[in-house]
Specification:
Number of strands: 0
Structural class: mainly alpha
Helix content: over 70%
Shape: globular
Number of helices: 9
Distance between the termini: 36 Å
Order of helices and strands: HHHHHHHHH
Oligomer: single chain
Radius of gyration: 17 Å
């Protein structure tokens, strides 16, 4: 399998989950229904903060040098993202609790699984960044919308680094399948949390057709 084939397979096999994670309900779920700028920014800061912690922990205990560099670079980017979002808030301390996808990622200790899961995480996170951008466009706040558009651009680099790492660490078809399973599980963990959050608020997570 090539990196491009891997990416296409993950996208295709998770099309429904990714589509729903990219719906307007995703922000509603993440904020507990508080669709104002403050709660939206706080939820975004929380997400960036716990992601940085996850990837920093990966980098610190990763024996594969190239993988450790990829995870460290990603952690640094997520730290920068956290700071950028916090700059839009007044004295907010982001939460340390890792739930959903981040809790799932923290359970991984295999290099191949981590690289695959990183791709899954990027694909899921792209959807939330798109919603954040759209939210602030709708709020007539082009500066904050541009901020999240820039953060989304960084995800392209994260995805490319993860795919390049997979090409290095996946030596067999079984390795590629292990990475694919990890990517699928990361997206599914994000989707499961989204579903649980909406159902707890009495909202149907599935689109009404």
């Amino acid at each position: 399998m090539t990196p491009d084939e891997f990416l296409d397979a993950v996208r295709d096999d998770n099309e429904t989950a990714l589509s729903r994670l990219g719906s307007s309900k995703s922000l509603y779920a993440a904020t507990g229904g508080e669709m104002d700028a403050g709660p939206v920014l706080e939820a975004a800061a929380d997400a960036e903060h716990v992601a940085a912690q996850t990837f920093r922990a990966w980098a610190d205990d990763e024996p594969h040098e190239e993988a450790a560099d990829v995870f460290d670079t990603t952690a640094s980017e997520e730290d920068d993202h956290t700071d950028a979002v916090l700059a839009e808030l007044d004295d907010y301390q982001p939460a340390d609790d890792a739930t959903g996808m981040q809790a799932s990622l923290r359970g991984l200790d295999d290099t191949v699984e981590r690289a695959g899961a990183l791709v899954g995480r990027v694909l899921a996170t792209e959807k939330s960044k798109e919603q954040l951008t759209g939210f602030f466009v709708g709020q007539a706040d082009p500066q904050t919308a541009s901020l999240f558009r820039d953060l989304n651009d960084d995800l392209d680099d994260q995805r490319d680094r993860a795919l390049a790492l997979l090409e290095t660490v996946c030596e067999t078809d079984d390795d590629w399948q292990t990475a694919k399973d990890a990517a699928d599980e990361a997206i599914q963990a994000a989707y499961d949390e989204y579903t649980e959050q909406l159902e707890a608020m009495g909202v149907n997570p599935k689109p009404v057709c």
